[in-house]
């Protein structure tokens, strides 16, 4: 049974609510547009927003499936105070099409409750804000405790005797100021340097220059500490809240700026979707999450850090030299139709390739090594209805068939055709008197599909 | 030229593999000029009866047909053995085959079958075998061969641990898959030849795979080496190449994929259809003998399903009697009891006539077996009554199976058994729904599980499921398929009209949508899987598993056979429907209560007949809780029809149904009735030969209302034979025969005209008959039901408290929720007392007040409370006296904390001075179990704690909580707390509407009890309730569509409309505007956020007409006015 998880504001106004059965909802609103919930994508989006919030504070935690908690202690002054920070965050998120509820409070739990159960006085909030199990919440209400203040006004011993320690604990955390620190989602990097721009930067080249400058900065710091970095991450903060991050890794610790820049450049080039500056980047940050000891005198290292695989490296090099679409490879496709049984694509596309079906030992191959695209029309003499070809004329040469095997009958993909039909093909493997082997087919079954089937040459065996 | 017989053909009973109905396969074979066909589905014989029946029907039309049908199964093994198609040579062989399949079925989960070659070798007798060279065998554990995990099964059937089969090849790698398969084939052939030298064939088919020639040559070599004849077959999966799309669709459904992604999992071509002999001869030109082999095989088959007939159990006949003599003996004895002094010539004649037919058709055992079951039920005090066409038979009446006298009511025997009808009579018996299990257990005891079993129900594709599956296969979004699916009102509709697509706003010119429409149309009625029938028992004299394979049911330790009702009918096997009827439970409980508390004892037939006050009550439309006539439509009809005797009740039951309504029979009947009631009424005259139709239509004032009347009309007025009339009935009953209706139309109209009836009258008669569709009621059935209507009305009229109590104790049943049943009882002056720990038991009960009775609500009404808790509580209370505190209750009755909380929530502790809130406060601090030290001292273990002042719970919140916990409140109605507010807005009470004048425009509000869209769906009926009563709102479909959201979503609805009052005093509010006032429910208490949790959806049950559809799929009985709060799980 399908249920509604997240109605849009309009749907909410029309009475749709989370938990409602989809069938009921459709009975009310037949035109209701329904989409499957994609929790992975939601979580990914939340992660991305959390990335964006790193601009305010490193202490960002994911809160459930739909919330973020930011510990902004000591950060707010950078954004002209708490209200300024809230306004900035709201503006950025709204630009992404989000509906935002922001609450500021002294403890994470209080902020969580206020963002979800109404701002203002904690005491005036409903007991649901405690987020106890539904049974407990109903019991509280049945006992006449409908708002937080009804609970805070009473001695806590009878309460915990009836609703357990967890209820009093929740109460203390939401309304009593008990502070449980959040666990930030990412450990702080060993080294962080950043640079913000007064005007958003829209050129990638300028960005790279900025990164290079930051890299110099970092290298200086690492040198002082006699360390080298093994991993580096450049984060580009876009004005609209998106964050692009470029991660590179070296097999040995390094603090060689040109090498870093080369790797970053390579990384940018190998990105599937190019960096789109949009309205510009307003902040660049370079992080070094992993430091290892490094002798200051060690020479810069050469060689790629990314490609481990020789073939991959070869493909990279050839593709760079000859053009992306000039180096290709085949992948098997699961289809009866011969020309659709394989797919050609750029070799550099990072896509997993299934193994080709192994040929049956001792059996001649079913498919030729060369396929004509399109198949070539030929003239054939064959007996009806489905006899093998006797001789055929191809490229003005008459080939006498010495041996033939078949037919292999392959139906059309009827569901791609308006009439749900299409022509069936009868394939024959034939050998002419000179020992050449061909792959021919008759298009249309005699009598059933075509009065006078036409023949094609589709391929050549070696 | 060649006498080719296709010996390997599957049907769509090879679920999701075959793509043609069994009858289509047979037809295709006949059309292709074959001399025969062998039907063999994957590990099942579920489809063979249909093929056999189709052939039988064709034979009836083409007596010259030279065609043979072999019925068997394709054995698909789980141990790597290639498929083997097995055909029984004789009756013994059939038994071997069914036993073998039973063995495989019983090892596996429901629907699966695990077979090994060893099993076949143990059941080889009388089987002809075709070994099919396949690699596509099952692997144990995958779907189709999932082992039954429960080891407590029948010992002899448990799976013996067996190592996987080992190939004799030393190094498998050196051999190709093909050689391996060939080797495997050789081994199988060797072991089969050892055991059954002359009964093995090697099947060869040409798959157009591109290397058929070499493959065939290899097989031929093998065949020669093994001295096994090669048999040419096409291994058919469907009738014609046109079924390829459908076959691809079912393949995708099976594989759980879509056409776009299925790739080579689909068949490469459309060649596996039934091919004619010339084509086979051409394809197998190198092996002409192989093409002839099928004919040689089928010639050795002496078995026909016909041989399974009449294997009825012999138990009910005492030694020394022939079954027929014994039946006569019982009938005479029964007739004396039933008729006594009134036993007349007419009775004797009818009995003679029926007995003669029974003797001729050899049905004596059948009647005796049903009699035996009924006799057992009577002996145990279980109420039962035959329903359906059995009530046409005087034998059934005198044997006590049915309760309606067919002589008195001139019922038509040929509706029950007819000479020319090739199927056994159908006796369905209703039993009390709570005690049916006892009857079923008796049948198992008496006949043994090896001879009695439940029949199967074939689950077919219905529009909704077909749209869903085909849509998925075509890669359409769930959204689109849901839109098409949602236009089908109810899941009962059998056709997928183009209209449905238009309704969903989809264009059939779009190729994808057209494809969906086309394929859904083809897939409809395809069997999807087998399931267990609700109560159809099959009984045999011999072992059942030698007749038909037996399956494990989903329910533990239950089994069912793999043939359904139609198959059993076609074969003439004996079936008894042991059905459950809630009203019988209610009546029996009422009888028991009356006997205990009042001392009068009743039985179904001893309830005083034709009491005027009972009918007077019904004529007022006062029928809540009464069998059948309690729905809104029935209640509206009662004051119009004004029933005055049992026959009127039968009419009442039958007339408010889609058949008569669509046939336009309701108004003519009511008009005639009103005319006849006038003092100067003229007798009705019928056209045609004088006096001829009086008998047929007289009882229903000239309007045909029952199936029997249609048949009689055809017999009397149009000269139909009994058998032909029966065909007409079948045509009326099944949509599939829609095509044959025009044939009957001309036959009947011309027949009537020829006999002197005006053409216009004949046409009108036929139009009415056509209107029955599948929803016409047989008169005998209506009569049987009418008796229950009367008995329940009698109880309601004379013993309202008893009736309400019995009704509540029989829940779930009927149309109404407990709140309405209790409300109705209170309206009839019954005092109802709330559930309480010091007074209630599990069941609702009666408490003496003065010379009457009060109804005490029992714990069963409290949601979530368990019977064992209630029993513990009552036992302690009776032994040790009243409870005085929550703690004492917990300790003495040893109730867990959850039980206490539920009781407190239900406000059941008032007798110890605690209201709901206080009780909950107390209950929540009572710990689970008790500390041994305190227990020893019998001391109070809870200390004193600081007083916590709890605010008092307002009355409105109490009522709301009552509804949440028990779905009824004796403290008030939710609406009364909103009354001031609504009154201020000028909204009337329901009662005011009922008393308002015709044509007045009013506004009224109430909680929604029922939303219903009957029949064609032109109007929507909504019933609103408030503290003063109910009002029936009628909303035209056009207005409904405009205000759909409000109409569907509102729990509390305000309706603006016009009062419409019929002359009989039936009031409707014709709605013009609907306003959703659900928000008002917040004011009962801030507690409730009504829209949160919807009621549990449950499909309506079969007591209502299948066309009536409760919108949203909820039975009114399950509708919650207030959603249940979340503290109950």
Would you kindly provide a written description of the structure presented here, covering whatever features stand out?
- The complex is a heterodimer of chains A (462) and B (1129).
- By secondary structure, chain A is α+β, with helices and mostly antiparallel strands.
- Chain A has 11 helices and 14 strands.
- Chain A folds into 5 domains: 9-37, no CATH class; 43-102; 106-187; 191-297 and 310-318, DNA polymerase, Y-family, little finger domain (Dna Ligase, domain 1, 2-Layer Sandwich), CATH 3.30.1490.100; 370-460, no CATH class.
- In chain A, the strands form 4 sheets. In chain A, strands 9-10-11-12-13-14 form a 6-stranded antiparallel β-barrel.
- Chain A is flat, with a radius of gyration of 34 Å.
- The model of chain A is unreliable at 297-309 (pLDDT under 50).
- In chain B, the strands form 4 sheets. Chain B has a 7-stranded mixed sheet, with helices on both faces. A 7-stranded mixed sheet of chain B has the order 8-9-14-11-10-13-12.
- In chain B, strand 6, helix 6 (212-226) and strand 7 (230-232) form a beta-alpha-beta unit.
- The longest helix of chain B has 20 residues, at 779-798.
- Chain B is globular and about 95 Å long.
- At the A-B interface, helix 2, helix 6, helix 8, strand 11 and strand 12 of A face helix 7, helix 8, helix 17, helix 19 and helix 38 of B.
Please write out the topology.
The complex is a heterodimer of chains A (462) and B (1129).
Chain A: H1 9-13, H2 22-28, H3 39-53, E1 60-63, E2 67-70, H4 81-95, H5 108-117, H6 134-142, H7 148-152, H8 156-175, E3 191-201, H9 204-225, E4 227-238, E5 243-254, H10 257-270, E6 281-293, H11 310-322, E7 328-332, E8 342-346, E9 370-382, E10 389-394, E11 397-410, E12 425-432, E13 437-443, E14 454-460
Helix pairs in contact in A: 9-10
Chain B: E1 5-9, H1 22-31, E2 36-42, H2 48-61, E3 68-75, E4 84-88, H3 91-107, H4 117-122, E5 127-131, H5 177-195, E6 200-204, H6 212-226, E7 230-232, H7 244-255, H8 259-262, H9 277-283, H10 288-299, H11 323-339, H12 345-361, H13 364-379, E8 384-387, H14 394-398, E9 427-432, H15 436-447, E10 452-460, H16 463-474, H17 478-486, H18 498-503, H19 511-523, E11 527-539, E12 550-552, E13 559-564, H20 565-571, E14 574-581, H21 582-597, H22 612-619, H23 632-641, H24 646-655, H25 658-662, H26 666-677, H27 694-697, H28 707-718, H29 722-733, H30 741-754, H31 759-771, H32 779-798, H33 800-809, H34 818-827, E15 831-833, E16 845-849, E17 852-856, H35 867-880, H36 886-892, H37 897-905, H38 916-925, H39 932-937, H40 955-966, H41 979-984, H42 990-995, E18 1001-1013, E19 1019-1026, E20 1029-1036, H43 1037-1042, H44 1044-1049, E21 1052-1061, E22 1067-1076, E23 1109-1110
Parallel strand pairs in B: 1-2, 2-3, 5-6, 6-7, 9-14, 10-13, 15-17, 20-22
Antiparallel strand pairs in B: 3-4, 4-5, 8-9, 10-11, 11-14, 12-13, 16-17, 18-19, 18-21, 18-23, 19-20, 21-22
Helix pairs in contact in B: 1-2, 11-13, 16-17, 16-19, 21-32, 21-33, 22-32, 24-32, 28-29, 30-31, 32-33, 33-34, 37-38
């Amino acid at each position: 049974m399908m249920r509604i998880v997240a109605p849009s504001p309009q749907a909410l106004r029309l009475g749709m609510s989370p938990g409602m059965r989809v069938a009921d909802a459709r009975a009310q609103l037949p035109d209701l547009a329904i989409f499957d919930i994609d929790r992975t994508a939601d979580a990914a989006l939340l992660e991305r927003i959390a990335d964006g919030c790193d601009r305010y504070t490193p202490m960002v935690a994911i809160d459930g499936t739909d919330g973020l908690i930011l510990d902004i202690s000591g950060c707010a002054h950078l954004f002209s105070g708490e209200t300024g920070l809230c306004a900035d965050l709201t503006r950025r998120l709204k630009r992404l099409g989000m509906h935002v509820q922001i609450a500021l409070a002294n403890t994470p739990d209080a902020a969580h409750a206020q963002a979800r159960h109404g701002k203002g006085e904690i005491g005036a909030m409903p007991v649901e804000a405690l987020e106890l199990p539904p049974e407990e919440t109903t019991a509280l209400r049945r006992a006449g405790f409908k708002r937080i203040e009804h609970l805070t006004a009473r001695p806590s011993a009878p309460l915990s005797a009836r609703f357990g320690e967890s209820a009093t604990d929740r109460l203390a955390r939401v309304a009593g100021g008990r502070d449980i620190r959040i666990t930030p989602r990412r450990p702080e990097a060993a080294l962080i340097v950043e640079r913000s721009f007064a005007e958003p930067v829209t050129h990638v080249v300028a960005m790279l220059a900025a990164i290079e400058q930051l890299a110099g900065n970092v290298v200086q710091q690492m040198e002082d500490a006699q360390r080298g970095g093994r991993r580096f991450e450049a984060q580009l903060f876009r004005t609209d809240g998106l964050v692009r991050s470029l991660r590179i890794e070296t097999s040995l610790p390094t603090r060689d700026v040109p090498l870093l820049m080369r790797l970053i450049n390579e990384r940018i080039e190998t990105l599937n979707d190019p960096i789109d500056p949009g309205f510009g980047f307003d902040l660049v940050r370079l992080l070094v999450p992993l430091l290892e000891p490094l002798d200051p005198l060690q020479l810069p290292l050469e060689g790629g850090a990314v490609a481990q695989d020789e073939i991959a490296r070869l493909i990279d090099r050839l593709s760079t030299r000859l053009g992306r679409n000039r180096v290709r490879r085949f992948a098997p496709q699961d289809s009866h139709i011969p020309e659709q049984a394989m797919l050609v694509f750029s070799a550099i596309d990072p896509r997993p390739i299934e193994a080709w079906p192994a040929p049956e030992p001792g059996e001649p191959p079913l498919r030729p090594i060369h396929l004509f695209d399109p198949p070539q029309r030929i003239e054939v003499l064959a007996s009806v209805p489905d006899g093998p070809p006797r001789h055929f004329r191809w490229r003005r040469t008459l080939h006498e068939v010495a041996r033939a095997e078949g037919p292999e009958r392959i139906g059309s993909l009827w569901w791609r055709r308006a009439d749900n039909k299409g022509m069936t093909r009868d394939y024959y493997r034939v050998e002419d008197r000179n020992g050449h082997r061909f792959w021919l087919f008759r298009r249309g079954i005699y009598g059933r599909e075509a009065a006078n089937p036409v023949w094609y040459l589709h391929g050549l065996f070696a | 030229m060649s006498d080719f017989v296709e010996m390997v053909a599957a049907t769509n009973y090879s679920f999701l593999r075959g793509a043609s109905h069994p009858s289509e396969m047979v037809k295709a074979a006949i059309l292709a000029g074959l001399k025969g066909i062998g039907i063999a589905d994957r590990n099942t014989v579920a489809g063979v009866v249909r093929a056999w029946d189709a052939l039988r029907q064709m034979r009836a039309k083409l007596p010259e047909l030279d065609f043979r049908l072999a019925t068997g199964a394709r054995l698909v093994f789980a141990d790597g053995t290639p498929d083997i198609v097995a055909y029984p040579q004789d009756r013994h062989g059939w038994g071997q085959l069914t036993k073998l399949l039973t063995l495989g079925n019983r090892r596996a989960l429901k629907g699966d079958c695990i077979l090994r070659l060893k099993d076949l070798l143990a059941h080889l007798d009388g089987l002809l075998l075709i070994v099919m060279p396949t690699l596509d065998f099952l692997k144990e554990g995958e779907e189709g061969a999932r082992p039954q995990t429960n080891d407590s099964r029948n010992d002899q059937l448990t799976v013996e641990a067996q190592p996987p089969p080992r190939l004799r090849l030393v190094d498998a790698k050196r051999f190709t898959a093909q050689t391996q398969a060939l080797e495997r084939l050789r081994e199988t052939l060797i072991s089969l030849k050892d055991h059954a030298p002359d009964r093995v064939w090697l099947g060869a088919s040409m798959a157009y795979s591109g290397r058929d020639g070499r493959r065939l040559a290899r097989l031929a070599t093998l065949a020669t080496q093994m001295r096994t004849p090669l048999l040419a077959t096409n291994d058919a999966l469907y009738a014609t190449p046109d079924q390829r799309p459908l076959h691809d669709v079912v393949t995708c459904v099976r594989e759980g994929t879509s056409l776009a992604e299925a790739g080579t999992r689909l068949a490469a071509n459309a060649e596996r259809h039934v091919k004619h002999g010339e084509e086979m001869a051409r394809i197998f030109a190198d092996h002409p003998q192989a093409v002839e082999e099928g004919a040689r095989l089928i010639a050795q088959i002496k078995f026909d399903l016909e041989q399974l007939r009449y294997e009825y159990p012999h138990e009910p006949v005492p030694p020394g009697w022939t079954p027929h003599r014994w039946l006569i003996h019982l009938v005479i004895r029964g007739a004396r009891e039933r008729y006594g002094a009134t036993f007349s010539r007419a009775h004797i004649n009818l009995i003679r006539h029926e007995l003669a037919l029974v003797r001729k058709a050899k049905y004596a055992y059948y009647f005796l077996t049903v009699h035996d079951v009924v006799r057992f039920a009577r002996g145990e005090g279980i109420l039962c009554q035959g329903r359906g066409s059995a009530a046409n038979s005087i034998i059934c009446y005198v044997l006590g199976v049915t309760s309606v006298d067919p002589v008195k009511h001139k019922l038509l025997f040929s509706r029950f058994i007819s000479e020319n009808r090739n199927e056994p009579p159908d006796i369905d018996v209703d039993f009390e729904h709570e005690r049916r299990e006892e009857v079923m257990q008796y049948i198992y005891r008496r006949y043994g599980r090896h001879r009695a079993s439940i029949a199967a129900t074939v689950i077919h594709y219905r529009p909704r499921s077909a749209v869903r599956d085909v849509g998925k296969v075509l890669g359409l979004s769930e959204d689109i398929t849901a839109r098409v699916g949602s236009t089908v009102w109810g899941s009962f509709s059998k056709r997928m009209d183009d209209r449905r697509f238009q309704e969903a706003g989809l264009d059939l010119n779009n190729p994808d949508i057209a494809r969906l429409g086309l394929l859904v149309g083809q897939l409809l009625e395809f069997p999807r899987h087998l399931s267990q029938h609700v109560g159809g028992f099959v009984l045999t004299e011999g072992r059942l598993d030698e007749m038909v394979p037996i399956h494990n049911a989903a329910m533990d330790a239950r089994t069912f056979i793999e043939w359904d009702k139609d198959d059993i009918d076609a074969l003439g096997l004996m079936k008894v429907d042991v059905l459950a009827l809630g009203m019988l439970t209610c009546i029996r409980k009422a009888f028991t209560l009356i006997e205990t508390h009042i001392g009068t004892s009743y039985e179904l037939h001893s309830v005083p007949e034709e009491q005027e006050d009972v009918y007077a009550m019904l004529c007022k439309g006062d029928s809540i809780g009464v069998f059948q006539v309690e729905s809104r439509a029935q209640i509206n009809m009662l004051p119009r029809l004004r029933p005055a005797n049992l026959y009127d009740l039968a009419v009442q039951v039958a007339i408010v149904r889609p058949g008569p309504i669509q046939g336009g029979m309701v108004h003519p009947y009511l008009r005639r009735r009103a005319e006849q009631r006038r003092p100067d009424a003229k007798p009705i005259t019928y056209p045609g030969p004088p006096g001829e139709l009086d008998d047929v239509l007289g009882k229903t004032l000239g309007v045909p209302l029952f199936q029997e009347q249609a048949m009689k009309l055809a017999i009397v007025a149009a000269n139909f034979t009994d058998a032909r009339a029966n065909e007409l009935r079948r045509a009326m009953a099944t949509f599939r025969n829609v095509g044959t209706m025009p044939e009957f139309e001309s036959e009947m109209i011309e027949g009537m005209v020829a006999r002197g009836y005006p053409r216009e009258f004949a046409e009108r008669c036929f139009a009415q008959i056509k209107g029955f569709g599948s929803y016409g009621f047989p008169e005998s059935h209506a009569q049987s039901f009418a008796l229950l209507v009367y008995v329940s009305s009698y109880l309601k009229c004379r013993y309202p408290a008893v009736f309400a109590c019995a009704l509540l104790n029989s829940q779930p049943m009927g149309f109404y929720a407990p709140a309405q049943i209790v409300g109705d009882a209170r309206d009839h002056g019954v005092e109802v007392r709330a559930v309480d720990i010091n007074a209630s038991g599990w069941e609702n009960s009666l408490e003496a007040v003065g010379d009457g009775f009060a109804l005490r609500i029992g714990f069963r009404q409290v949601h979530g409370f368990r019977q064992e808790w209630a029993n513990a509580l009552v036992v302690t209370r009776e032994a040790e006296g009243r409870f005085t505190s929550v703690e004492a209750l917990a300790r003495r009755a040893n109730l867990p904390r959850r039980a206490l909380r539920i009781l407190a929530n239900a406000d059941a502790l008032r007798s110890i001075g605690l209201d709901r809130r206080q009780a909950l406060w107390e209950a929540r601090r009572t710990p689970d179990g008790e500390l041994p030290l305190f227990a020893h001292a019998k001391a109070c273990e809870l200390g004193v704690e600081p007083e916590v002042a709890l605010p008092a719970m307002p009355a409105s919140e109490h009522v709301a909580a009552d509804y949440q916990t028990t779905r009824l409140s004796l403290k008030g109605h939710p609406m009364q707390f909103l009354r001031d507010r609504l009154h201020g807005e000028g909204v009337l009470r329901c009662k005011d509407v009922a008393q308002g004048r015709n044509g007045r425009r009013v506004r009224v509000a109430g909680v929604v009890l029922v939303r219903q869209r009957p029949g064609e769906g032109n109007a929507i009926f909504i019933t609103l309730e408030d503290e003063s009563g109910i009002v029936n709102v009628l909303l035209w479909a056009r207005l409904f569509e405009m205000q759909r959201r409000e109409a569907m979503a509102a729990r509390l609805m305000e309706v603006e409309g016009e009062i419409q009052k019929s002359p009989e005093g039936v009031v409707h509010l014709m709605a013009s505007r609907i306003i959703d006032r659900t928000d008002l429910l917040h004011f009962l208490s801030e507690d409730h956020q009504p829209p949160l949790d919807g009621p549990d959806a449950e499909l309506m049950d079969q007591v209502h007409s299948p066309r009536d559809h409760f919108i949203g799929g909820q039975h009114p009985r399950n509708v919650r006015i207030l959603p249940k709060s979340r503290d109950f799980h």
